[in-house]
Automatic annotation (TrEMBL):
<dbReference type="InterPro" id="IPR058031">
    <property type="entry name" value="AAA_lid_NorR"/>
</dbReference>
<dbReference type="InterPro" id="IPR003593">
    <property type="entry name" value="AAA+_ATPase"/>
</dbReference>
<keyword id="KW-0067">ATP-binding</keyword>
<protein>
    <submittedName>
        <fullName>Transcriptional regulatory protein ZraR</fullName>
    </submittedName>
</protein>
<dbReference type="InterPro" id="IPR027417">
    <property type="entry name" value="P-loop_NTPase"/>
</dbReference>
<dbReference type="InterPro" id="IPR002197">
    <property type="entry name" value="HTH_Fis"/>
</dbReference>
<dbReference type="InterPro" id="IPR002078">
    <property type="entry name" value="Sigma_54_int"/>
</dbReference>
<keyword id="KW-0804">Transcription</keyword>
<dbReference type="InterPro" id="IPR009057">
    <property type="entry name" value="Homeodomain-like_sf"/>
</dbReference>
<dbReference type="Pfam" id="PF25601">
    <property type="entry name" value="AAA_lid_14"/>
</dbReference>
<keyword id="KW-0805">Transcription regulation</keyword>
<dbReference type="Pfam" id="PF02954">
    <property type="entry name" value="HTH_8"/>
</dbReference>
<dbReference type="InterPro" id="IPR025943">
    <property type="entry name" value="Sigma_54_int_dom_ATP-bd_2"/>
</dbReference>
<feature type="domain" description="Sigma-54 factor interaction">
    <location>
        <begin position="1"/>
        <end position="204"/>
    </location>
</feature>
<dbReference type="Pfam" id="PF00158">
    <property type="entry name" value="Sigma54_activat"/>
</dbReference>
<keyword id="KW-0547">Nucleotide-binding</keyword>
């Protein structure tokens, strides 16, 4: 589980690569990108002549292709109830049946599912099969967003800069100090995918040894700019003067009142006297009105 762009497929591939299945195939299927009418044939394959327009030689499905390896089902929340049932049967029986065939074929695959939403909520709403949810949710990894792992921002940036230096035949060393500050405060709503796009964009335009602010996308800079409207800005001393005056009016201008003012403002009593003198403050009844 993880937000869009956090690198769920990369994480799944890493699991495959360090497992005993690493010498077999790692097959990726984006369940959200394939129409439901085609997803069944994509996953399970079909026999020749199974339907109009079918390949004359038939087709091997992704499950059979991944036999001995791993199949990565991305955006599993987009599967229809029909496909959810078919997947559940394949997991339980370790067998698949091609479209247009009555013969079951045994398959040995590791299934890794991925989603960017809370599947349990979909289960509660009746949009995702409870039995499939618990069958898939044997081991669940929550991949944090990029903003939750800030140390990775610069680690990934260095990797991407090295990668794109080879692609663009450039000799860029890293990020400038200003860009590092911008990267550190950016929200990174697109996560690692957004970071990759920003680095690739900058590498196209940067001609110095470091990625500078000038080479970043305009919208990226715009989001991180802090704009303060000039109207309504009050000097700090004016604010201090007004706060001190109102606090004295509230607690009193006598000795006891000034002691309480000092406590309320977190300053010494001598500082209260000094600031009264500095700002020429007087009790209301001593102010001459002409």
């Amino acid at each position: 589980m993880g937000q869009t762009g956090t690198g769920k497929e990369l994480f799944a591939k890493a699991i495959h690569d360090i497992s005993p299945r690493r010498n077999k195939k790692f097959i990726v299927v984006n369940c959200g990108a394939i129409p439901d009418s085609l997803l069944e044939s994509e996953l399970f394959g079909y026999e020749k002549g199974a339907f109009t327009g079918a390949n004359s030689n038939g087709k091997v499905g992704k499950f059979e292709e991944a036999d001995g390896g791993t199949i990565f089902l991305d955006e599993i929340e987009n599967m229809s109830q029909f496909m959810q049932n078919k997947i559940l049967r394949a997991i339980e029986d370790r067998k698949i049946c091609k479209i247009g065939s009555n013969k079951e074929v045994g398959v040995n695959v590791r299934i890794i599912g991925a989603t960017n939403i809370e599947l349990k909520k979909m289960v509660e709403e009746g949009k995702f099969r409870k039995d499939l949810y618990y069958r898939l949710n044997v081991i669940c990894f929550k991949i944090p967003s990029l903003i939750e792992r800030k140390d990775d921002i610069f680690l990934i940036s260095d990797y991407l800069i090295e990668k794109y230096c080879k692609v663009f035949k450039k000799n860029i060393i890293g990020l400038s100090p200003k860009v590092k500050k911008l990267f550190n405060i950016h929200k990174w709503e697109g996560n690692v995918r957004e970071l990759r796009n920003v680095i690739e964009y900058a590498m196209n335009f940067e001609n110095s040894k470091y990625i500078t602010e000038a080479s970043l996308p305009n919208e990226f800079i715009g989001e991180n700019e802090v704009r303060i409207k000039p109207e309504g800005i009050v000097p700090i001393e004016e604010m201090e003067k007004e706060v001190l005056r109102k606090t004295l009016d509230w607690f009193g201008w006598d000795e006891a009142g000034k002691i309480r003012v000092a406590e309320a403002l977190g300053i010494s009593r001598s500082s209260v006297y000094r600031k009264i003198a500095k700002y020429h403050l007087e009790p209301p009844d001593m102010i001459n009105i002409s």
